[in-house]
Amino acid sequence: MDVRRAVQEPREIDASGLPMEHAQAVILDELRALTGCEEPFAAILLMPAPREGRTPPPSGDVPSAADRIRTLKAIRPGLTEFCRGLAFVAPADIPAERAAAIHSGEQLWGCPTTATQDVTAARAWAEERNRE
Fold first, then answer.
1. 89 DSSP 8-state letter
2. Looking at residue 105, what is its pLDDT?
3. What phi and psi, each to the nearest 5 degrees, are found at residue 44?
4. Cβ atoms within 10 A of the Cβ of 67, count?
5. CA–CA separation, 28 vs 115, rounded Å?
6. CA atoms of 22 and 81, how far apart (whole Å)
7. Residues contacting residue 54 through CB under 8 Å, at least 6 positions apart
8. Scanning 16, 23, 76, 80, which has its CA 20 to 30 A from the CA of 70?
9. Which long-range contacts (CB under 8 A, 24 or more apart) does 38-41 make?
10. Distance from C-alpha of 28 to C-alpha of 2, rounded to nearest angstrom
């Protein structure tokens, strides 16, 4: 008998209005919660636009870059096992290092990724990944 887990609709994580460091922490927390459910999922990640001018340092309540890397390493096995794909919706003018992280796919995230500026395309991609 073929028993398959019910596939949930792609989860949309909207971090678009947050400062980048805070957005990254929110996304990682949401992905940790999704992997903790131990169910297959795909997610659409709405990323913030880069800030104009100089970026102030993150406030004390935002995890450091090292903490965010540790979190990603901790959840990567769950992403590999349960995540069918992450669709990043990001503006065209994001910094090069952010674009590289988004496009690094399975090397960084442990699951398939795509990046687009079009939320409709991201939703369609995530829905297709969920059907696989």
1. E
2. 72
3. -110, 125
4. 12
5. 17
6. 26
7. none
8. 16
9. 38/78, 38/82, 39/5, 39/6, 39/8, 39/82, 40/5, 40/7, 40/8, 40/82, 40/83, 40/84, 40/130, 41/7, 41/8, 41/10, 41/11, 41/82, 41/83, 41/84, 41/130
10. 32
Mean local confidence (pLDDT), 92-120: 81
CA 36 to chain centre: 15
Q: Letter for the amino acid at 95?
A: P
CA distance 28 to 10: 16
Flag whether pLDDT at 99 surpasses 60.
yes
Mind spelling out the 3-state secondary structure of 26-84? HHHHHHHHHHHCCCCEEEEEECCCCCCCCCCCCCCCCCCHHHHHHHHHHHHHHHHHHEE
**Distinct helix (H) and strand (E) counts, the chain:** 5, 4
| Confidence (pLDDT) at 65 | 79
In single-letter form, the type of residue at position 9 comes to E
